[in-house]
Amino acid sequence: MTTHFYYPNKELQEELICISKALVAPGKGILAADESSAVMGKRFQLIGVENTEENRRYTIAENISGVIFYHETLHQRTDDGLPFVEALRKKGILTGIKVDKHFSPLFGSEDEFTTQGLDDLANRCAQYKKEGCSFAKWRCILKITKNTPSPQAILENANVMARYAAICQSQRLVPIISPEVLATGDHDLDRCQKVNEILLAGVYKALSDHHVFLEGTLLQPSMVMPGLQSNKNHPPADIGVATVLAIRRSVPPAVMGVLFCGGAQSEEEATVHLNAINNVPLCKPWAMTFAFDRALQTSILRTWGGKKEQITHAQNELIKRCRANGLASIGKYVIGSVESSAATERLIQEAVEF
């Protein structure tokens, strides 16, 4: 391997760093709304309605730094006809875009996958940048069984994510790298921690090989937890320590921040565990915050129910969850202090979503 390469020019480095810092500013995280469901567009109406005294005092940008869109929802508009990207920009919120396409089976593996979408990625990223996007997300999935994740799956997905990251940076987008370990399985906490350490080490080796500018990247991993079928429960402090140790042993301090996904956790679980992570008494050179989807939206959608008359109540749920996670991202959330309609409901889903 040659040691000759070029970093991005100084102007591009500064732009990527500025975006990365903004996304992990203290007390803030990302709303991951990058699903392809038709309901996603309607969710954003909840952000734009400000018709109560409490809502007028609260700006969503106090706790949400960015929103990740799916391609189909990026170009939709609010009820007032304003493009979502512009509506968020006016609130000081950055726009992101999910750029991976679909999962493809790895031949010869035990039901493992890689992620497709590199072929036309440069052109798509250039267009998304013109349309107002500042960052992108690419998700790879790995599962824990007796024999997986295999070295083949780790190597393949690490290289795919590294190539994605390099392409994004070339088009002035900050790449969020999301190697997600699925919640399904009967593995224990120690096994999950070790798998995350090996996986993340492989990812950052690939990023180095592809000369990715780490200061202009963000990581979105899973929290370290026992598998859903293990029937093992651990106090939040144990989850926090295991997660922080896995990150400390694998992720370079040059990375600006770590944005955890909620996985199959309930809203309250995800918030409590994020709070525990930020209270682990070990050196953590990264901002450690959230990029939640269902763990930030379930109560909102349940309250809303597609009914216009429920928008105000649903928006109040959004405010509560955003505030709770904002506090957790700085280690100041009080367990049980925020009640919501689906706070303790686990969000179990299919292992692979196409």
From TrEMBL:
- Keyword terms, alphabetized: Glycolysis, Lyase
Q: Which residues form a coiled coil?
A: none
Q: What is its EC number?
A: 4.1.2.13
Q: Which pathway does it take part in? A: Carbohydrate degradation; glycolysis; D-glyceraldehyde 3-phosphate and glycerone phosphate from D-glucose: step 4/4
* Reaction it catalyzes: beta-D-fructose 1,6-bisphosphate = D-glyceraldehyde 3-phosphate + dihydroxyacetone phosphate
Pfam families per UniProt: Glycolytic
The organism's place on the tree of life at top rank: Eukaryota
Which InterPro entries is this protein grouped with? Answer: Aldolase_TIM (IPR013785), FBA_I (IPR000741)
- GO molecular function terms noted in the UniProt entry: fructose-bisphosphate aldolase activity
Give an example GO biological process. glycolytic process
Using the UniProt record, name the top-level EC class of this enzyme in a single word.
lyase
Q: Does Lyase show up as a keyword for this record?
A: yes
- What family is reported? Belongs to the class I fructose-bisphosphate aldolase family.
Q: What is this protein called?
A: Fructose-bisphosphate aldolase
The species this protein belongs to is Drosophila simulans
